[in-house]
């Protein structure tokens, strides 16, 4: 059920207080160290289980102690774990992963290759490992030729994948057959999967000196930055969800920050952090999108007008529902706010962070659901009380080890220095450690609002290593070059899979 634009804008007139966190006393250094050690040991627990039962396959099945190859069988968990192992300074795991990367043949797989997933997990993981191990963590590997392999393999992977952009417009296919050079015959590609390539592919060009990769990704992005037809941009900066591969024209005007659209907006500001000289237009588009989002998508549940969530919009109609995936939004506003010195963006980011915290804080497990709604026309009777108290009801109670809420808490902590956000990270991490931990790793939950989390999903996504463990650990570990900085002082920028990429020099 949808609400009209008038009713949303009236709801949106309720002023949210940006002042949402109650400052906590500063955490003692000892306590911070103890928490960092606990997170490191959880990472090692997951790594040991993966190594014993699943390596070199893509992921562990943490209930049955089996394995899966959902990411083409190249060892996704190993490559996704690399940058976290580096940051945790675990030389044994780092060297094991480097030995594995040297053996991968990226030209071979039996299954369809996702350009997006392969870019953010494998290419991002290897380039980040390269930047970290050639830079601030160079002492972890004594044989530097093992680190050079990360760049060689990144180039190999880029060369395997680059045929995806060989279309009349340059907008790539996402689902590829790398053996035949074919694709799934799609006529459109999604906003996020098209717009979440530029960081990794540009970094590959900058490190190899071959402009091909960056040029391909930026040509594809050019259609997103200059959307046609004009109707595909119903509010400045907010664009449709699907792009015609033949023409580069948008095929619709549905706007949201939800899955499918999300990391397009994330990369607009991250490209500016990567290189403000080359990517000023990306920043301008992020600013336009951020302002329009505050004006047109901010929505406050009738039962909890103090909370802020993001609605989505299509042709005059608002959908009052959101997702765990969307909760990266607070982090994006906080990064943009601090880099551009915009207090309004920071305050709005904190309001979004507070809304996503509410989705964690209000369930029986202390973990938030995959999808939720605040549309009062379809509240299930069994969730009326939840809606009255928490301002949302659950439309999917699954939790599949996603990072976005902890990710945004991390940005809130780095930008404000307010200990509240570290406490929120610790609570979320502790809930995951309590409810998702199995004998060999971590499993997803079927119902975050059941006393025991419901059933377990027998799958450990590789982003558990790359993101959940990393963002949690970063909050309690030492100052370092790879930490997000306030203002414009970032030396690294985290890709959407939380792999730190060195900014352009
Ligand atoms: C990750 O692969 C990335 O964070 C991506 O941007 C969204 N989906 C997962 C985590 O939920």
UniProtKB/TrEMBL annotation:
<feature type="active site" description="Proton donor">
    <location>
        <position position="117"/>
    </location>
</feature>
<feature type="disulfide bond">
    <location>
        <begin position="327"/>
        <end position="356"/>
    </location>
</feature>
<protein>
    <recommendedName>
        <fullName>alpha-1,2-Mannosidase</fullName>
        <ecNumber>3.2.1.-</ecNumber>
    </recommendedName>
</protein>
<keyword id="KW-0732">Signal</keyword>
<keyword id="KW-0378">Hydrolase</keyword>
<comment type="similarity">
    <text>Belongs to the glycosyl hydrolase 47 family.</text>
</comment>
<dbReference type="InterPro" id="IPR012341">
    <property type="entry name" value="6hp_glycosidase-like_sf"/>
</dbReference>
<dbReference type="Pfam" id="PF01532">
    <property type="entry name" value="Glyco_hydro_47"/>
</dbReference>
<dbReference type="GO" id="GO:0005975">
    <property type="term" value="P:carbohydrate metabolic process"/>
</dbReference>
<dbReference type="GO" id="GO:0004571">
    <property type="term" value="F:mannosyl-oligosaccharide 1,2-alpha-mannosidase activity"/>
</dbReference>
<keyword id="KW-1015">Disulfide bond</keyword>
<feature type="signal peptide">
    <location>
        <begin position="1"/>
        <end position="21"/>
    </location>
</feature>
<comment type="function">
    <text>Involved in the maturation of Asn-linked oligosaccharides. Progressively trims alpha-1,2-linked mannose residues from Man(9)GlcNAc(2) to produce Man(5)GlcNAc(2).</text>
</comment>
<feature type="active site" description="Proton donor">
    <location>
        <position position="370"/>
    </location>
</feature>
<comment type="pathway">
    <text>Protein modification; protein glycosylation.</text>
</comment>
<dbReference type="InterPro" id="IPR001382">
    <property type="entry name" value="Glyco_hydro_47"/>
</dbReference>
<dbReference type="GO" id="GO:0016020">
    <property type="term" value="C:membrane"/>
</dbReference>
<dbReference type="GO" id="GO:0005783">
    <property type="term" value="C:endoplasmic reticulum"/>
</dbReference>
<keyword id="KW-0106">Calcium</keyword>
<dbReference type="InterPro" id="IPR036026">
    <property type="entry name" value="Seven-hairpin_glycosidases"/>
</dbReference>
<feature type="binding site">
    <location>
        <position position="496"/>
    </location>
    <ligand>
        <name>Ca(2+)</name>
    </ligand>
</feature>
<dbReference type="GO" id="GO:0060205">
    <property type="term" value="C:cytoplasmic vesicle lumen"/>
</dbReference>
<keyword id="KW-0326">Glycosidase</keyword>
<feature type="active site">
    <location>
        <position position="262"/>
    </location>
</feature>
<keyword id="KW-0325">Glycoprotein</keyword>
<comment type="subunit">
    <text>Monomer.</text>
</comment>
<keyword id="KW-0968">Cytoplasmic vesicle</keyword>
<feature type="active site">
    <location>
        <position position="404"/>
    </location>
</feature>
<dbReference type="GO" id="GO:0005509">
    <property type="term" value="F:calcium ion binding"/>
</dbReference>
<dbReference type="GO" id="GO:0036503">
    <property type="term" value="P:ERAD pathway"/>
</dbReference>
<keyword id="KW-0479">Metal-binding</keyword>
<dbReference type="InterPro" id="IPR050749">
    <property type="entry name" value="Glycosyl_Hydrolase_47"/>
</dbReference>
